[in-house]
Write a structure and sequence with these properties.
The complex is a heterodimer of chains A (716) and B (179).
Chain A: E1 28-34, E2 43-49, E3 52-58, H1 71-74, H2 76-81, E4 90-92, E5 101-103, H3 106-124, E6 129-133, H4 139-148, E7 153-154, H5 156-173, E8 190-194, H6 204-215, E9 219-223, E10 236-238, H7 245-258, H8 264-270, E11 271-272, H9 274-281, H10 286-293, H11 297-310, E12 314-316, H12 328-342, H13 390-399, E13 407-411, H14 415-418, H15 422-430, E14 434-439, H16 444-447, E15 451-454, E16 466-468, E17 474-476, H17 491-501, H18 513-523, H19 528-534, E18 536-538, E19 561-562, H20 566-570, E20 590-595, H21 609-614, E21 619-623, H22 624-629, E22 637-642, E23 651-656, E24 663-667, H23 687-690, E25 695-696, E26 703-704, E27 709-714
Parallel strand pairs in A: 6-7, 6-13, 8-9, 8-12, 9-10, 11-19, 13-14, 14-15, 20-24, 21-23
Antiparallel strand pairs in A: 1-2, 2-3, 4-5, 4-15, 16-17, 17-18, 20-27, 21-24, 22-23, 22-27, 25-26
Chain B: E1 4-9, H1 18-27, E2 36-45, E3 48-57, H2 65-68, E4 75-78, E5 83-86, H3 96-100, E6 107-108, E7 114-115, H4 121-124, H5 131-135, E8 141-145, H6 152-159, E9 162-163, E10 175-178
Parallel strand pairs in B: 1-10
Antiparallel strand pairs in B: 1-8, 2-3, 4-5, 6-7, 9-10
Classes of the chains: A alpha/beta (716), B alpha+beta (179).
The complex binds iron/sulfur cluster (3 copies).
Chain lengths: 716, 179
């Protein structure tokens, strides 16, 4: 049936001051909320002028945005107006992946989903249904899936992004870095970025603090095969050979320990296993590291001493996207250990201790207990995984081991471009009995779905509260500014309605999201009315450094900073990180590196008209000499071919001095193939398509993706 | 009366283009057009490089050729802040000003008139900074009165090395880049 545009089963949220496209509203209305164009959750104020969405500005009360959004946040207006956004529920008509749809009602679409989920539960057990959900918006879908009985809930942010970093730091300090990261960039007097392109990687608060550090004359050390924007601000730029970061980290520590430049008092008070650690560092001289990294011994010594000069206000940034070569949690551990030598954990200019408001959760009935356990990490083969592994769920879907997975629900994450090896993802999808995609934009994964459920943008919905763990406690509210322009629904409504159809009403004792929010806030003695008016309520500031009264505590097995890790030793891994040499690209090939641009989030924003206008396609960065040797002029189209013969999409050459000759770089998220994403379709190339190989981190299951090599083929 | 100008710290700017998108939403600049943009200059050879990132727009020149060549008086120097503006109703779309501007700061709006940066004079009149200045996450832009010896813009110009764009064009631009 094709009557999809008719009003659906769900009532429009009864809200004051909410207006749709046709309106008689006059004047300027300002609604505080928080952004959802990336996951940083910056406080924002939406402006509606004469009933039409005008602009989104930062909320000055918010410690994350500090009154200033990033380009994506400022471009949030475009998400609302995007003509390509999903509009009505869709049910697949043809074979999977052919993007042939029938528009339908919410009632019918959710009946299909609930029916298939019931069948899966009967045939295979509730565990056979998995959820991939990225970001705060996934809260209620997670709740529904847990109530249904599935423990298999994962996000690519762990195994494809920050997982190794969090594991490496937790193994060392007993605690994770968190998101927003607990980095005190604004007070750092020496900031070391190793493979982290802050500024291009535009996590708003961090980018702001980075500029502050630059403005205050902090000594910046940047290690990157590419002369990034951050590198252009650096006192020392080290153009490292890709894949050898561990060698540099070990050589730095060799110098710092060897020359006695570390914080001896701090290490004596808080360190465990320093003697063994020291012995392990012995062989890693700067002279040893030189042929590995391409960085001269003098430069290694000079930068090591520079770091020591400013400690403890020396911050070696843990990075975010840390899945590079498969030994990533050990590399992150080396970063953690270098910070430990600086005594920067718990110190001003290093890492602060986060805090949050005490806002109790909603009192739900207990979830059913799974007898089968989680599917993604059988036998705990990745002993130190702290979250579910997306690629583990994919593998179980493909092999049926340790038990079959037959249904995927995917919320706001484009798995086709997020997971390495697209062919494996597509094969896994073919093995499913149900694929449901809930999203704002018609991503590639939506193209493969059986049912596509269009979510409202953040400007049209309430969401879970943001009870942030940050430098200071606060709670923030996302609230609707306008009605959805078509038949889109908020995720809470989708999750709740689906639960109803699955007979799980008991898990949704609240009627409207306002009841839910009000209940949680009342329990915390906070006023929902005040939060609606201000968008954010701040708690009392608490100490954030050891020197201000934070009691040093390291929840590791030894209760100390583990220079030597007994748990790693006992599990058969290196207790102190060691260097492994990674394969080099064969002659004529280049290592494929990828990263971020400030105006786009993953593959989610390319069809946003405002952000598309800023950057409509990506380029492949090729060293200028290499480009001229290959006869490739700046701006001409080429295709990359990877070591497995996969030919990439058309992409322009950026012939530049700003990259080493042995690698190429491109911004992630382009090369859309979804026919529904008309504006972004066929613009630029997808790095993900060329990432057919990956190396799995044995500790935690992360997928190192910087292991692919490409050649460049000129386009006629 | 003030003489407004901008000082932009290229050390802090990360080229994020937030200033560009803020201008688009604030002023409802038509899709495909820009009143401000980012320029990057790379000099040197890998790995010894220097990169300057600049947020550029109309310089609100003290000697504006775009005003001198305008046959109708649509392009004019507004007494308020000595800002160079275009009155759309008077503009005949002849493009003389587009040709005369050495900075390529102007475009023809789809509605037929010459369009460009206004220094967000509607905001400045309300005591606000221009949209691009107030949005910039790195706080690298400062807006103010060049005729006021105690203004922050003058303090910055006096305390740091700086340059303006194409000084040889003789237009006396009022946007200064700190290096
Ligand atoms: S917003 Fe600020 S940091 Fe970003 S490009 Fe513009 S001037 Fe530079
Ligand atoms: S920058 Fe161009 S448009 Fe602006 S005042 Fe100068 S000459 Fe005129
Ligand atoms: S001053 Fe206003 S009009 Fe000019 S570039 Fe900035 S935002 Fe645009």
């Amino acid at each position: 049936m094709a009557a999809g545009l008719a009003a659906s089963a769900g009532a429009r949220p009864a809200l004051e001051h909410v207006s749709g496209a046709a309106t008689t509203e006059k004047g300027i209305r300002k609604v505080p909320t928080f952004c959802d164009i990336c996951f940083w959750k910056c406080g924002a104020i939406a402006h509606v002028k004469d009933g039409r969405l005008w602009k989104v500005e930062g909320n000055p009360e918010d410690p994350l945005s500090r009154g200033r959004l990033c380009p994506r946040g400022t471009g949030g207006v475009g998400a609302y107006f995007d003509p390509d956004r999903l509009k009505v529920p869709l049910v697949r008509r043809q074979k999977r992946g052919q993007e042939e749809w029938v528009q339908t009602t919410w009632d019918e679409a959710l009946n299909v989903v609930a029916g298939k989920m019931e069948t899966i539960k009967t045939k295979w057990g509730a565990e056979a249904m998995a959820l991939f959900a990225h970001g705060l918006g996934g809260t209620f879908l997670k709740h529904t899936l847990k109530a249904y009985g599935s423990p298999n809930i994962a996000a690519p942010s762990f195994a494809q992004c920050r997982g190794p970093r969090d594991v490496g730091f937790a193994l060392t300090f007993g605690e994770e870095i968190g998101s927003p990261e607990r980095t005190d960039i604004r007070n750092a007097r020496c900031l070391v970025l190793i493979g982290s392109h802050l500024g291009e990687n535009m996590h708003n608060t961090q980018a702001q603090e980075f500029a502050e550090a630059v403005g205050a004359g902090a000594s910046i050390i940047v290690v990157d095969p590419r002369f990034s924007v951050a590198a252009s601000k650096a006192k020392h730029y080290l153009p490292i050979r890709p894949g050898t970061d561990m060698a540099l980290l070990l050589a730095w520590m060799h110098v710092i320990v060897g020359e006695g430049l570390y914080d001896k008092e701090y290490v004596a008070a808080h360190g465990y296993g320093f003697v063994q650690f020291q012995a392990e560092l012995e062989p890693y001289t700067p002279e040893w590291a030189y042929p590995e990294t391409g960085i001269a011994p003098d430069a290694i010594r000079e930068t090591a001493r520079e770091m020591a000069r400013y400690r403890p206000a020396t911050l070696i940034h843990p990075g975010r996207h840390a899945t590079w070569y498969g030994d990533d949690s050990q590399r992150s551990r080396a970063v953690a250990l270098l910070n430990a030598l600086m005594g920067s954990w718990g110190r001003k200019g290093g890492f602060w201790t986060p805090s949050s408001m005490d806002v109790p959760g909603y009192p739900y009935p207990a979830y059913p207990k799974s007898t089968k356990g989680k599917v993604d990490n059988p036998g705990s083969r990745h002993r130190f995984a702290t979250e579910s592994i997306t690629t583990g769920i994919r593998e179980a879907t493909l092999t049926g081991q340790p038990y079959p997975v037959k249904g995927w629900m995917v919320y706001a994450t484009n798995l086709i471009n997020a997971l390495p090896n697209q062919e494996e993802t597509i094969r896994a999808i073919q093995a499913l009995e149900l694929l449901v995609v809930v999203d704002v934009a018609p991503s590639e994964i939506a193209g493969w779905a059986d049912v596509v459920l269009p979510e409202s943008t953040y400007l049209e919905r309430y969401d879970e509260l943001n009870v942030e763990s940050f430098r200071e406690p606060f709670v923030a509210l996302r609230q609707p500014v306008l009605h959805s322009p078509h038949d889109q629904k908020p995720n809470w409504w989708i999750a709740r309605t689906l639960a109803g159809k699955l007979g799980l009403q008991a898990y949704y004792p609240w009627k409207t999201i306002e009841d839910y929010l009000d209940h949680r806030l009342a329990k915390a003695n906070l006023s929902f009315t005040e939060l609606k008016r201000k968008g954010i309520i701040r708690g009392a500031a608490v100490p954030v450094y050891f020197d201000d009264g934070v009691e040093p505590s390291f929840p590791t097995p030894s209760g100390k900073i583990e220079f030597y890790s007994t748990q790693l030793h006992d599990a058969g891994f290196d207790p102190v990180p060691k260097y492994t040499r990674h394969p080099e690209p064969p002659a004529g090939s280049f290592r494929l590196l990828f990263g971020r641009a400030p105006m786009h989030t993953f593959s989610r924003t390319q069809s946003n008209p405002l952000l598309h206008d800023l950057m409509s396609e990506n380029e492949v960065w090729v060293n200028a000499d290499v480009a001229s040797r290959l006869g490739l002029d700046d701006g001409r189209y080429v295709r990359l071919r990877n070591q497995d013969g996969v030919l990439g999409q058309r992409i322009r050459v950026k012939a530049t001095e700003r990259i080493r000759p042995d690698c190429v770089f491109m911004v992630h998220g382009f090369g859309h193939t979804s026919k529904m994403m008309r504006r972004a379709l066929g613009k630029g190339a997808s790095d993900a398509q060329l990432i057919t190989r990956y190396k799995t981190d044995p500790l935690m299951g992360g997928t190192g993706m910087n292991v692919n090599f490409v050649t460049i083929e000129a386009e006629a | 009366m003030a003489r407004y100008g901008m000082v932009i710290d290229t050390r802090r700017c990360v080229g994020c283009m937030d200033c560009v998108v803020a201008c688009k939403t604030e002023n409802q600049v038509p899709e495909g057009f820009d009143r401000d943009w980012i320029a990057t200059d790379t000099t040197g050879r890998f790995p010894n490089l220097h990169l300057e990132i600049r947020s550029e727009r109309c310089n609100h020149c003290d000697a504006p050729p775009c005003v001198d060549c305008c046959p109708t008086g649509a392009s004019h120097v507004e007494p308020f802040g000595h800002v160079v503006l275009v009155t759309p109703e008077q503009c005949i779309g002849c493009k003389a000003c587009l040709a005369s501007c050495p900075y390529d700061a102007r475009f023809v709006n789809p509605d037929g008139f010459a369009d460009k940066c206004t220094f967000c004079i509607h905001r400045v009149k309300e005591g606000l900074d221009p949209a691009c200045v107030s949005v910039c996450p790195t706080r690298c832009m400062t807006f103010g009165d060049l005729d006021d010896p105690r203004s922050e813009v003058n303090r910055l110009i006096e305390s740091r090395t700086h340059h303006a764009l194409i000084p040889a064009a003789g237009t006396s631009p009022r946007i200064f880049y700190l290096t």
